[in-house]
Amino acid sequence: MFERKPVRLDPRIAWFATVRHLLSPMAGVTDRPFRTLCRDHGADLGFCEFTSASGLYYENEQTWRLIDTEGETGRVGIQIFGSDPHHMAAAAALLRARRMDVLDLNFGCPAKKVVRKCGGSALLADLPLLAEITRQVVAAAAPVPVSAKIRTGWDEGSINYGEVGAMLQDLGCVWVTLHGRSRAQKYGGRADWDTIADLVDRLDIPVVGNGDVVDGASYRALVEHTRCHGVMVARGAIGNPWLFAEMKAADAGRRHVPPSFAEMCATTARHIRLEVAQRGEATGCLVVRKHIARCFRGYPGAAHLRRRLYAETTSAGMIAVLAEAARSADPGLGAPETLALEDLAS
């Protein structure tokens, strides 16, 4: 439906030709249960939570647990960050044994805890180091393809995405994702889609656009404005895995039918079950709360429902609340106990 710039695809990522909708790596968010939900609703590629290369290098058990891809179906990527070329390359070599379709380099994270160690978007202010990291990781990761995510620059006075993008292409990255904000902007203001369009024109490899896509209309607007190969979404997907279905509908030129309240309750119940199966009862119930905080927006009584869910300490209690809420919204669904066992089953 949309005009997209023809690109040069590395033979190792021939599958990327049809990848349009990507879930961004987000700390504390994009674990395997959430990737599964997003894939259920149309995500073509999902990333693990971004991971410290030094943590992997020093065999930190908690860091390695973030790489939870074994046996995962569907396309999955791993993203690493760091400022030590040796640690980054060593981590890439170790990760070759893990299930992944692409290894991504984090040159875009604006978080203070990452930047103060000269990782993430801090490397946009040190291009020789960024180049050395990329060179070593591409060599160490082979034959696994390597991509990179960047921002427009460190601040408004040092916009250098064009130079960085060309460098990454020359060093062997198979695609570049550009978030249309500088590091100084963090997540404020509007993303500059003109920078994404410019990078699309400059590079031969695919460019993935990122920034301010929250629904089908903004997805369509970004693709039409930039001709980018695909779109990566981050915050817009938290509590809203249906965003991927909405983007797919926009691609197909058809009207998106939003999920019913009962469907939202069923998806949330499935998320709870998946988190508890992976993390255990207590942690699983806590992790899903950040998604519940953004879910059910616009529905009457949503705030009350969230408070009731937060008050529950067990997955069974949370699922029972969801079943009751779904039945209240649609009395034809049946008794609450039937909903909890059948309609809300994973």
Give a description of the structure:
With 346 residues, this protein is of the alpha/beta class. It folds into 2 domains: 11-252, Aldolase class I (TIM Barrel); 261-343. The chain is built from 16 helices and 9 strands. It has helices at residues 32-40, 53-57, 61-65, 85-95, 112-115, 127-141, 161-170, 193-202, 216-226, 243-252, 261-279, 281-287, 289-292, 302-311, 315-329, 336-343, and strands at 21-23, 45-47, 51-52, 75-81, 102-107, 146-151, 176-179, 207-210, 230-233. Strands 1-2-4-5-6-7-8-9 form an 8-stranded parallel β-barrel, surrounded by 7 helices. Helix 11 crosses helix 12. The two termini are 34 Å apart.
Fold topology:
Blueprint: E1 21-23, H1 32-40, E2 45-47, E3 51-52, H2 53-57, H3 61-65, E4 75-81, H4 85-95, E5 102-107, H5 112-115, H6 127-141, E6 146-151, H7 161-170, E7 176-179, H8 193-202, E8 207-210, H9 216-226, E9 230-233, H10 243-252, H11 261-279, H12 281-287, H13 289-292, H14 302-311, H15 315-329, H16 336-343
Parallel strand pairs: 1-2, 1-9, 2-4, 3-4, 4-5, 5-6, 6-7, 7-8, 8-9
Helix pairs in contact: 1-11, 4-6, 7-8, 9-10, 11-12, 11-15, 14-15, 15-16
Summarize the structure.
The chain is an alpha/beta fold.
Labels describing this entry:
eight-stranded parallel beta barrel, 346 residues, TIM Barrel, alpha/beta
Write out the CATH superfamily name of the largest domain: Aldolase class I
**Overall 3D shape:** globular
Strands ordered across the widest β-sheet: 1-2-4-5-6-7-8-9
Q: Quick one: CATH class of the largest domain? A: Alpha Beta
Q: In CATH terms, what is the architecture of the largest domain?
A: Alpha-Beta Barrel
Report the strand count.
9
